[in-house]
Amino acid sequence: MIGIIDYRAGNVTSVVRALNHLGESCRISDDPMILAQSSHIIFPGVGAAGEAMANLRRTHLDKWIIEWALAEKPILGICLGTQIIFDYSEENDVQCLGLIPGVVKRFSANLTHGGSDLKIPHMGWNYVEFRKTHPVFRGLPEGSEFYFVHSYYPIPAQSDLIIGITDYGTSFCAALAYKNVVAVQFHPEKSGRPGLTILSNFCRWGGQDAE
Amino acid sequence: MLSKRIIPCLDVRDGKLTKGIRFRNNIDIGDPVEAAREYYEQGADEIVFYDITASSDRRDIMIDVVRRVAETIFIPFSVGGGIRTVDDMREVIMAGAEKISINTEAVLRPPLISEGAKAFGSQCIVLGMDVKKVPVHGKTPSGYEVVTHGGRTYTGIDALRWAKEAEDLGAGEICLNSIDADGTQGGYEIELTHLISTNVHIPVISSGGAGKPEHLLDVLTRGKADAALIASIVHYRTYTIYEIKSYLKRHGVTTRMIW
Predict the structure, then answer these.
(1) Is the C or the N end of chain B the one with fewer CB within 10 Å?
(2) B197 to chain A, minimum CA–CA distance in Å?
(3) CA–CA dist A155, A96 (Å, integer)
């Protein structure tokens, strides 16, 4: 059973639909007792960091997510879920979970490409350059692109945690992994077949980062 | 770098496509879910649905279509047509649409844009604009006017002013439809697209006029569009999405080529 953390951060039903399509049973919940019965946890989210953190604290999910991660069970962060595992986000100037050392910053307003100003949010399909192999990112065709919608991006304190890099006027961390934690800035559930491959790999992953 | 998006548009009435769509096996498809699946497999980057069902008490038919599409394709799609309230938006989003498109509804009541953005985030709210070229004068200094009802009703609103106002109200994207170019297959309205796209900070999807791949190249380069909407050019099998993307790639435009 895949547990999906519900912390009132946008619509998470698309993650459920993608897992159903893959034949994986899953449950959305904000109750740690129910989520604890899962084999894997997905931490999704669309929205703003401040309200998301407030909701996590109110339901005590903030502490529970740390416990889950420290127990070395597999967890996948998606978009806002990825940003919140860091120490701090510039969005709403908020302290986050601190599971992975690093900060989340807003794209600078003056990014350009080929003489044109780049728009914020970074929205649409972009290429991810995978710099390391990892079981969750296995089997992706060379040149795969993923669907992004975000104005903020994570900067891990330890650059060796970065698995994939994307260019949007600046290079940023689009995928990272540390022990049993995998996190992506894009939306695998909206990224066609390559995205479904990542979700499927994750559901079969034991939580070790070694190949 | 971010790829330019190619977005087929499907018109739906009472749960059926308004015009049959012919695919490679030469079979006419009237089911929007099957059409969405075909375009997903062909490499569409996103899909736009316009519900032109006349009667609002038949809305549940479209919600069912949205739900089935969401179980079938795993790329973003938007739904427009007849969405007047935040509750209407919620229903469509919970059924699985990534984005909501509002057009006439926003002209009649602009706060709908900010209400939607507040409830679901700007990334969910697409402002659809139908625009006609008009003489430059006091009310329309850009030379483009917002129209409704398929171009029959002039609103007196300047297109550039409306685009900026919608951005300020929280729209996350603009789908810009040239009524003059729509249906001609003679090319997009490049001047209009360039005007809007370089004057707002949100992505602009250009719509109306696509007849051959050169038209998309033109609007994505000279027109500075972030995405191009297509309809007849693919519905009648003149080109496949893959052929269009291959052409764009050969001419230096980055699009998603692996799916």
Answers:
(1) N
(2) 10
(3) 13
Enclosing domain of residue B96 = 5-250
Distance from C-alpha of B126 to C-alpha of B115, rounded to nearest angstrom: 13
**Residue A160, pLDDT above cutoff 90:** yes
Query: Do A11 and B258 make contact, defined as CB atoms within 8 angstroms?
Result: no
Hey, which residues does A165 pair with through a beta bridge?
A129, A173
Please report the pLDDT score of residue B26 as a whole number: 62
Q: Choosing among A145, A146, A148, which should be mutated to test the B contact, i.e. which has the most B CBs within 10 A?
A: A145
| Segment B143-162, tens digit of pLDDT | 999 999 878 899 999 999 99
Taking CA–CA distances from A21, the nearest residue in chain B reads B71
Residue B259 in any domain: the answer is no
Query: Is B41 part of any domain?
Result: yes
Known catalytic membership, residue A26? no
Q: Please determine, looking at this structure, whether the domain spanning A2-203 carries the CATH number 3.40.50.150.
A: no
Residue from the list B96, B203, B227 with its beta carbon closest to the beta carbon of A13: B96
Kindly state whether residue B255 falls inside one of the protein's structural domains. Answer: no
- Report if residue B126 sits inside a domain: yes
Q: What CATH number did the domain enclosing B185 receive? A: 3.20.20.70
A14 and B70 within 8 Å at the Cβ level: the answer is: yes
Per-residue model confidence (pLDDT) at position B23: 67
> What does A172-192 look like in DSSP terms, one character per residue?
EEEEEEETTEEEESS-GGGSH
Summarize pLDDT for A80-117 with one digit per residue, the tens: 999 999 999 999 999 999 999 999 999 998 899 888 88
Q: Do residue A11 and residue B201 have CB atoms under 8 angstroms apart?
A: no
C-alpha closest to that of B89 among B57, B112, B109 = B112
Lowest pLDDT segment from A73-82, A124-133, B12-21, B84-93:
B12-21
